[in-house]
Write a structure and sequence with these properties.
single chain, 179 residues, 7 helices, disordered N terminus
């Protein structure tokens, strides 16, 4: 393999790196949205509510498509315009399909089963978040540019947010079991 081929493949974003970046940016943007949802006088499907729930995913997707590539801006914009609707439609299809598949076990997702399902939920959360650590390491090793610092910071903030969430959820479960 020639050196130019090795360099070209090293610059291409990896699937788990891209996933980690979309996940991190979505989480970082969802936190302020979740806080804002808590301030709404009602939680029905108003434009504000739907925007606070969906816009973080859309922004994370667009930012990832625009920054996670060494391509020129014009090509990145074209890729974003083509792939964003496809990814969003796929995401909606996966959401509805997974919701339908969860219907048979829906009774086990209630509060009375949390002591049983909490460890499973924690394990799934760790599995979903596991690509963040190697993605941070890769970006730090790649050198410090504004882009890599932004990406690594978003991923690190996401790890902290997940740790806080798991801690709060864990202490809530322990106190709920004690009462």
């Amino acid at each position: 393999m020639s050196d130019s081929t090795a360099v070209a493949t090293a610059e291409e974003p990896r699937v788990f790196d891209t996933y980690a970046l979309v996940y991190a940016l979505s989480m970082v943007l969802l936190v302020p949205g979740s806080i804002a949802i808590g301030q709404l006088p009602f939680r029905t499907y108003t434009l504000q509510y739907v925007s606070l729930v969906t816009v973080p995913f859309l922004v994370a997707l667009v930012v990832t498509f625009m920054t996670d590539s060494a391509d020129p801006v014009r090509r990145s914009a074209l890729r974003t315009a083509i792939l964003t609707p496809i990814v969003l439609m796929t995401g909606v299809a996966v959401l509805f399909t997974s919701s339908l598949l969860l219907l048979p076990i829906n009774t086990f997702l209630g509060p009375e089963y949390r002591s049983v399902t909490a460890p499973l939920a924690a394990a799934l959360l760790l599995l979903i978040a596991s690509p963040l650590v190697p993605a941070i390491v890769r970006r730090v090793r790649a050198g410090f540019t504004a882009k890599t610092l932004l990406h690594a910071a978003a991923m690190l903030i996401t790890l902290v947010l997940l740790g806080v969430f798991m801690y709060i959820n864990g202490t809530h479960e322990v106190t709920a079991m004690g009462s």
